[in-house]
Amino acid sequence: MGPGPSRSLVLALSVALAASARAAGPGWERIDAPAPGAPPSASTPPDETDFWERLQAKAFDDVCRHLDLKQGVGRSLGPGGVELDARRRLRRYPDGTLALIDQARLGVHTSLAPRLVSLEDGASLNVSFGASVEGESYIVRPLGEKKACKEVDTLLKLWEFKAALPFTPERIAAMKTGELWRIPLSIRLSVTPGVGVPITPETTLELHMGLADQGTVTATLYRLSQDELRFRLRLDRALIKDAGGSVNVAIPLSQLGIPEATDLLMKQATRLVWKELRRYAAATLAYSAQSVSQGRVLLELTVDPNRPEELAALRDALAGDLETIARWARRLALKRPGPALAREVGERLSERLGTPDFLGAEEREGTGRSFHIRLPLLYDGQYGSSRDKGTLYVLDGSGKEYESHRTEKRSESGSIDLPILGQYSRSTRQRVGEAVVSRDPQGSAGPMLIYSDQYGFRRGRGVDVRDFALQADRVLRLAGTRGRGENGSVGLPIDQLLPLDSMTEEPGPDDVGPTYKSYHAAVTAFTVVFNAEAVTQLLTAPVETILRAVAAAVGGSDGHMLGFALDRSEVRADGTLAFDRKKMRKALREAGLDGSPDPEAPYDPLSEIGRVAKLAASVAQDLLAAAAAPTPEARAEALARMIGGKGRSGLEYGDILEILVQLVDPGQLTAQLALRVEKKIKGEPDVAARFAFNPALAADPELTALAALRGRFAPPTNLTD
């Protein structure tokens, strides 16, 4: 687009839209946390509880929370065996309160790992075959207490161990609010060829490929309230292909100051402690790549536990308990989960239960990569990324379907790994971009875009939580501004919730910069949802507006130089800039931006303009390519790739988000920020707050339906169904 009336009109329109957004528009409102078991809102990550569980699973917590009462018996049957075990332990909900978990497991397994080739230098080629069938009874009971050591008496009352079976109306009616019963039955077959090559006596290189087929049928009962009991039946099957390698170093315990095993030491130490010590004396560097093909079926029904006739119908539907579950496991082994199997489940169970509240299916294909590094006692880090495509089917007669393109980046790390107790310091982050297209027999609607960023730590810097909140605040201040600055009327009360001066300690004599306080724990979640109209605005934004949005997002000297160049250039249709180099250099010189005379630190502003202009053009080209895609589904895939950093620009997640939000009307965005900080510092209150941006849009029927669907198909966690 060259200079002239059309360009002036576009710029004037951009300024007007930005001014309108700043003048009066949606803002942040403080909201309550969702009730346990409630469906997520449009701007709530469906895996919020799962993120919390992964964060705190390996973290050092109250010593009492790590008490794990486990007893098992086993019988070897040649290459296989039978195991029966029961365990009782404590887990913590996201609000800090505790749950008591009673778990009983019966497993039948077989494995065979013949060594195919064995060489003189110790290298070997082998292949392992495995098969297993496992059934469980899993009970979760909320305790309401936050201090684990106060619940040791409850933990030790083994005579109160509870099992899920049998499903009788009397036992179901006696469930407490928040109580969860789960009965999964899993069947797994696997084959894994591998190569092991010793490098030194303590170091081994291992390479492997694997194929596993796993199916699971799960029945759950979850007491939502005094008058609501939710029953869910899930059928899951996944085909997993895996390939990777690792370098493993077995460090002698004596090198860590731990005495070598002796008869006397082995008599005095329990087998568990010794096993932990050996595990902590190993270093690992591993990489793997996976592809996963999976299908799911879900039936959901809510009944009133105070109505005996409804509980009797539920009992009849589950007549035989495990026999019913085993019957669906056999069907699962013969038939891939999808709409056809879901309809069969619905027809069979509806005869006794009536019409279910929800019946649906999901089919998903994806790939992923992961990297793992472990240093004994010091550090344990896992990093991964994945991309997948799925279709979700709502089988209510409407023919409604959702096609989802999802990209994810995840990191988990822990340090000071204390044997048995866990990692003293731990942090986790997960960023997800998802583009979703809804369709029905009349056709496909435009894609919707969902971005979520979750971050948490155990024993970390409070200023890191503040930075996370400030970043969320900046994103929504940019909404609708079209590269013309920030919206000053939109803002979060970050300084009231997380004041910087309260996080800074008095500097010591050797401190060069500020020293920040360490907090006990923090969990944060930030989500932004673009509805279909917002995505349309993204894909129809003028090219120059896109470039100015890049300049505003980049900021600093790069943003200033790009803005300087835009004011003196012609913007081509592909986002590149056309300008006279001599005139531009003269303009730079007149503006005092003619570079550095220091020969040891040369700086050419024209080269700087070229670099940042190329970045901006690549962002524009990514959006132009998405807009030119022939179908809504293809546009959704292009947007997901761009969010995940697979576009021309290489910008990903939060960086690209700051550009995208500028191009849309704030009224077409909804967002949520959740903060929970446990300081455990005398005189300083903890922080628990949740804010919603434009919550009215979150109530949109299309977004609400999508949120409920994503929540239903999110994998169950230890504490949820």
Report on this structure.
By secondary structure, this protein is α+β, with helices and mostly antiparallel strands. Helix content is 30%, strand content 38%. The protein is built from 21 helices and 23 strands. The strands form 3 sheets. It has a 19-stranded antiparallel beta sheet that branches. The longest helix is centred in the C-terminal third of the chain and has 24 residues, at 605-628. Mean pLDDT is 84; it is low at 1-23 and 258-270.
Q: What is the secondary structure topology, with strand pairs?
A:
Elements: H1 5-23, E1 28-30, H2 48-57, E2 68-77, E3 80-92, E4 98-112, E5 115-118, E6 124-142, H3 152-156, H4 169-173, E7 180-200, E8 203-223, E9 229-250, H5 263-268, H6 271-280, E10 282-303, H7 308-317, H8 322-334, H9 339-353, E11 358-375, E12 379-394, E13 401-418, E14 422-440, E15 443-444, E16 448-461, H10 462-477, H11 494-497, H12 500-503, E17 504-505, E18 515-516, E19 518-530, H13 532-539, H14 543-554, H15 556-566, E20 570-571, E21 577-578, H16 581-590, H17 605-628, H18 632-643, H19 654-660, E22 669-678, E23 687-693, H20 695-698, H21 701-713
Antiparallel strand pairs: 1-23, 2-3, 3-4, 4-6, 5-6, 6-7, 7-8, 8-9, 9-10, 10-11, 11-12, 12-13, 13-14, 14-15, 14-16, 16-19, 17-18, 19-22, 20-21, 22-23
Bin the strand percentage.
35-45%
Report the structural category.
alpha+beta
Helix content: 25-40%
Outline, from the CA principal axes? globular
Number of helices: 21
- Give the end-to-end Cα distance, rounded to a whole number of Å: 54 Å
Give the strand tally: 23
Radius of gyration: 29 Å
Unreliable segments of 5+ consecutive residues: 1-23, 258-270
Largest sheet: 19 strands, antiparallel
Task: Give the averaged pLDDT, no decimals.
Answer: 84
- The quaternary structure here is single chain
